[in-house]
Amino acid sequence: MSHDASHPPTRPSLGAVQETLLIPLYGRAVEHRRPDAALTDPRAAELVDALDYDFARFAELPSLTGSVLRTLLFDHWTRDFLGDHPAGTVVEIGAGLNTRFERTDNGRARWFELDLPDVAALRGAFFAETPRRTTLATSVTEPDWLEEVGREPGGARLFAAEAVLPFLPEAEVRALVGRIARRLPGTLLALDTHTPRLVADQDAHDALSRTDARLRWGCADIEVVADWAPGSRVLASHTLTSLPRAVHDALPPRHRALLDDLARRRLPQVEEYRMHLLRLP
């Protein structure tokens, strides 16, 4: 389903946290339009054009590039997963207006895209469900949606929680990890974390400070999350300046130069933000 340019733009009506989904969407659209784009995402560009929203408030923010790099890493993990499990199940937690399906789908995998009802309604204006692609209009903290995912055959599952769990209280993140591990053992979980210091200093964040959303969970050590479900393994943990070689080396020279400079500067806002891949027991 694509946007009809003859229709007036859609004005999103979203809660404070849900509104943050527009930041990475805009970042992907801006990146797509660069002549040396690190990421190709024509659907993101279409969506930005189709929304009646003041994206200019986020223009030229450095964190837009960071959101693109994070998405590239999550896409890398998704492609690796589908390479190993072509008929596996991918669950997007807090899907927002992400277009990972369009970027990485292999024509065989089963996809669930979960988000709160207001976001799911917005997605419904632009994305059509299919037998392989289902929207789950619910909160990640509700337990029932895991049952629907669990009914899918095949067994191999990747849960991608990109830029969503830090907005939950720690107790809810811990409960979620436990529920997934108990109901769907062996699941891969991709997530991102901020240290408690970054959470405390979030008013200095260039993009979040322009919204009413608040980070609530800080994590200084991903092994603590692994311990919430004993037997979990941390398969990968990266900062933006320590991306896997396959991701880093595929970047345009502009991005590689930026990351090399950031690696030398060791800025807390860069080094204390991490992206992880866990294997739950």
UniProtKB/TrEMBL annotation:
GO-annotated biological processes: methylation
SUPFAM superfamilies: S-adenosyl-L-methionine-dependent methyltransferases
Family annotation (Gene3D superfamilies): Vaccinia Virus protein VP39
Keywords: Methyltransferase, Transferase
Highest taxon in the source lineage: Bacteria
GO function terms (MF aspect): methyltransferase activity
One Pfam short name: LCM
Entry protein name: O-Methyltransferase involved in polyketide biosynthesis
